[in-house]
Write a structure and sequence with these properties.
This protein is α/β, with parallel strands linked by helices. The chain folds into 2 domains: 152 residues, nicotinate phosphoribosyltransferase (Alpha-Beta Barrel); 181 residues, TIM Barrel (Alpha-Beta Barrel). The protein is 39% helix and 17% strand. The chain has 14 helices and 14 strands.
Length: 344
């Protein structure tokens, strides 16, 4: 494999007939295989005119406000190029039309990477922004991102990492957690209880097999009334039980504030004030606020973050050989942003 530099290079690309996954590899992305072909065509045309090495200033801005994420991948795509690179710090908030990244150097050096850079930032910022909305709803209560099952596995670690940048306290995706230097977080699925046929034996085995420092959180909505099962499990595990988890399906009405209040009250009446209530299942900011007010202590949030729309990003050429320029409708010259920091 080699970096694409012309249309002729595309013609030489051969696909392995035994390829098992369609997602792009790290090297395929870095070599430009996932770019839009018209950028390669542009490079050929500018080369023929002797213009491909003109020094330009390009700026990226977003169409709506958000939280900045994805700059590590964007920077790593360009770090070996002869370029000056500026960007917002990861986790920084931005406004619509605010410059979030600036690239200065010969156009040839980054021409084919425009698609890739915009895609990295658009998706990552969209996920991080949704996570920030959840963080604001949770206030100081923790939440874990559970969104990997809703996206292609090739981008699941990117999504969960962006969610942590946006405010999640942890990630359930193993690779995302490792990339963040933390341990993956999670409880147990309904499958474990269904296979055993009863919640309690699984809870007891869970308590027995997990290391002492592990926080035991037991799902209690598989077979019985949630309040009844919560107390039953609490009596069996005692002080070893950190929390019960509610994930009542929509077919049974989902997790409601009334259910959370009842379980909190019944646990307290039995002397289990220390047992926390962890809720998950189709959560979104407004519902998180209601459940939090009802007594929920922590949250598992998936589809609201994983399903967040990408934030539309645009790259504009703002200078050519130091001369301000812009297409119609845009103001020529750099759009300064004091929050930008130089990366290279």
């Amino acid at each position: 494999m080699a970096e694409i530099k012309s249309l002729a290079d595309i013609d030489r690309i051969k696909m392995n007939p035994n390829r098992q996954l369609y997602s792009a590899s790290e090297q395929e992305i870095l070599d430009g295989y996932t770019t839009d072909v018209y950028f390669v065509r542009t490079l050929d045309i500018l080369d023929s005119m002797g213009l491909a090495d003109k020094v330009v200033t390009a700026e990226i801005f977003a169409r709506k406000p958000g939280v900045f994420a994805g700059i590590d991948e964007a920077f790593n795509t360009l770090k070996d190029k002869d370029l000056e690179i500026w960007a917002l710090p990861e986790g920084e908030s931005f406004n619509a039309k605010e410059t979030i990244m600036r690239i200065i150097g010969p156009y040839r050096e980054f021409c084919i990477y425009e698609t890739i850079l915009l895609g990295i930032l658009a998706s990552s910022c969209g996920w991080a922004t949704a996570a920030r909305e959840c963080r604001e709803a949770c206030q100081d209560k923790p939440f874990i991102v559970f969104g990997s099952r809703h996206v292609h596995p090739s981008v699941a670690p990117v999504m969960e990492r962006a969610a942590v940048i946006g405010g999640a306290n942890g990630a359930s995706n193993i690779l995302a957690a490792k990339l963040l230097g933390m341990e993956a977080s999670g409880t147990l699925p309904h499958a474990s209880f269904l296979i055993a046929g009863d919640t309690l034996p699984v809870a007891l085995a869970y308590d027995k097999t997990m290391p002492k420092e592990h926080k035991r959180i037991v799902l209690i909505d598989t077979f019985k009334d949630e309040a009844e099962e919560a107390v039953r499990v609490a009596k069996a595990l005692g002080r070893n039980l950190f929390a019960i988890r509610l994930d009542t399906p929509s077919e049974r009405g989902g997790v409601t504030p009334e259910l959370v209040r009842e379980i909190r009250a019944r646990l307290d009446l039995e002397g289990f004030e220390y047992v926390k209530i962890f809720v998950s299942g189709g959560l979104y900011p407004e519902k998180i606020k209601l459940l939090s007010e009802a007594g929920a202590d922590a949250f598992g949030i998936g589809s609201y973050i994983s399903g967040a729309s990408a934030i539309d990003m645009t790259m504009d050429i703002k200078e050519v050989e130091g001369k301000p320029i812009a297409k119609r409708g845009r103001v020529p010259g750099r759009v300064e942003n004091p929050k930008l920091i130089r990366l290279k």
